[in-house]
Amino acid sequence: MKTGKSAYQAAVVFVLFVASLFIGQAHAESRQLAYLVSDKRIPFWDIMARGIQAQAGELGYSVKVFSADNRAKTELQNTATVLKQEVDGIILSPTNSSAAVTILKLAGQAEVPVVVADIGADTDNYLSYIQSDNYQGAFDLGRILAKRLKNKGWQQGRVGIVAIPQSRDNGKARTRGFLDALAEHRIKVADIHQQSDFSYRETYDYTSGLIARHPDLRAVWLQGSNRYQAALDAINDAGKSDEILLICFDAEPEFIEMIETGALVGAGMQQPFLMGRLAVRSLDRHFQGETVDPQQQVGVLAVSNRNLNTLLPIIQRNVLGQEAAE
Prior knowledge:
By secondary structure, the chain is of the alpha/beta class. The chain is built from 11 helices and 12 strands. It has a 6-stranded parallel beta sheet with strand order 2-1-3-4-5-11, with helices on both faces. It has a 6-stranded mixed beta sheet with strand order 7-6-8-9-10-12, with helices on both faces. The longest helix has 26 residues.
């Protein structure tokens, strides 16, 4: 049996422990985070924003999302607004890697830590850079396409690419990985077109142009996902639905059924919900005085009808962010 003194000391320790938990929670709740995102209208960024909000809520932080709607001027205005509000931390998914330099410089002057979540930056003036393994994901995707082309006896045909801007580090890595995989299988590439406004019309026109200029076109690789219907419509309108394959990067909810039915060869699925969570955790570790890795890499799931069922739970949680909707 404890003595009166030891019982008192134990009670004091317990009270102090409980108080420290409340103090820590209050400290977290007092911190304000901001997510500067290139374009929240694109599902990938919306899912990452939900990952950020989910993790921030669990850790007791408040967070506001500022979308640039793919406009560099708006991005700078959002940056100025965020810094004026004296936020404690910023998560940044810039419009492009060069634009990130100015944002990081301004944040550095204000002594606000920044975690870059995807896209990349032409500087290392950040707390941490969380990136998808775009090269390996695109390489694996290229191998999936090459195998499908060979199975159909179409390996002599060409592959057209509708790419995200190559001024982005992630765009460069995707292109390099995919081209390396095709070269390994001696499959030729047609033109590469870079998206600028990410519109339906732009994607449709690029795909139609590839079909018109290359009679031997056998596949189109769309380096994004949200304009997949534009590419499919262009293929169908050209009467080539049975002659040209479509493969994408990123994911939409309908991709699961499309991969199952063969309407889509496959998709290189990043994990934006997980990346958003990791970004908030990185800032939290920094606020607690812990060391944060300056480079963090998240795998890309190269999904085809061969592995879809196995990967489905991960896809639903980390790729589509359906955990947040439950």
